[in-house]
Fold PPC domain-containing protein.
Amino acid sequence: MPVGALGRIVVVGLRPKEDVVSRILSVAQERSVDYAIVQAMGTLSRVVLGFYDGETKKYVTKELSDHLELVSCMGSLAKDSTGKQVLHLHATVSDRNLNVLGGHLVEAQVGYLVEVYLSEVAGTELVKIYDDSLGLMVFKENTRLEEP
């Protein structure tokens, strides 16, 4: 199990029409954040949420296009075995009638503003590998720990 410590905290405000997923990845790259705990909140104009069907090993998705509150978004920034960034996010959104829906965040476009907090994980490597039995990326066991 990866064990590390919190490093820097990078805070960024995303603007209208920005793509949430690609912008988080670009900010992480610009700020040299390799591994992080990701949190976000704000408003969206469009979102695609997914539900993982363990039997078919596929995501069932639903798209919403309206003024939406991004009530909560959390996840992790890791790397795969080739060093490519892997962003895994789950989100809860509400519509104008306060109906709430949540799931795996597949895509999202900023409505008015989204605040993103990247809490860097230092002293370890968060590497994800594909697990055939689950059909998902999972954390690789890792024991390296250094002071940040």
About this structure: The beta strands are 5-14, 36-53, 58-80, 85-94, 100-122, 127-131, 136-139.
